[in-house]
Amino acid sequence: MKLRIWCNNDFGPNDQLALKLLQEGTASHQLIRFADTDGGLAGEPRQALANSDVAFGYPDPQAIIESQTVRWVQLNSAGYTNYDVESVKSALRARGTLMSNSSAVYDEPCAQHLLAMMMSLARKLPRALDNQRDQQSWPMQELRAHSQLLNGQTVLLLGFGSIARRVVELLQPLHLNLLAVRRRVAGEEPIPVIEVSRIDELLPAADHVVNILPANNETHHFLDAERFAKFKAGAIVYNIGRGLTLDQEALIRALASGRVSAAYLDVTDPEPLPSDHPLWTTPNCFITPHTAGGHDNEKERQVNHFLSNLRRFENREALINRVL
Questions:
Q1: Residue 114 φ then ψ, to 5°
Q2: Do 246 and 127 fall into the same domain?
Q3: Is-contact 228 254, C-beta < 8 A?
Q4: Cα–chain center distance at 57
Q5: 27 lies in which domain range?
Q6: DSSP string for 150-162
Q7: pTM score
Q8: Is the distance from CB of 259 to CB of 233 less than 8 angstroms?
Q9: Which of 123, 148, 193, 271 would be 189's cystine partner, CB 3.0–4.6 Å?
Q10: How far is 96 from 61, CA to CA, in rounded Å?
């Protein structure tokens, strides 16, 4: 059966291979492409979306609600905050419309990015780089004395989706104590996983708190002043989830007091983070501009993930990374 596939996934001049993969992989269907800025808000993109069977990219949630023909939405992101609301979910359920995200594209780069920061902080690489750029001295004894091995330390993962699972696979060879919290414990997780309601019991034992939570009403400022006060003295917090899940003002105070010894943020609130925001100059706060999921063949992997799911959709098989 020939499908009308609406797409607003952006393909720049460096992503022509990905575009070719998409065109070849959908040759038996009708592919309708728009710029990534055209989320289906108005005009031709919205009209085309209203008459399509499949949407690939990041369409406007309201346009998805209004469409009576879209039977499957494949997001090109791991996050789906704008769709994780009852108005969207109820509309999709009523029509039997499926939604999947691209977690399988981003679990590997996000996990590697987190590992890089954990290792660099343990081995005091930021301090060594600061010395190279500034004093250009030779603080060998100081850096050696404060460098750590991760072996035996405890990592607490907030959330246990595909990114967390890959993080676990990368960290296990380092012989860390790994545990996680999530809303619903499946029982098949490869590490101890506890219901999120018990988070406050676990924080005092964690050397590393890794926040991979999505943004929703339940997770807004999940890490706040009260929870930072429960941290083990000197613990490190990492946020590769969403900026809204962490109270940044409370974090600044926790860093100043030493309760939190360091923070690594790949996501912030807002984004981009204003140049005069105090987080930029807060001691022991390290920021990357939402780059954890980035990689040089990102668009190719997005397309290959979509095409794998397209074959599944055509054969009425279970979709990879289905979220609704």
A1: -65, -45
A2: yes
A3: yes
A4: 16
A5: 4-101+298-314
A6: -TT-EEEEE--SH
A7: 0.94
A8: yes
A9: 193
A10: 16
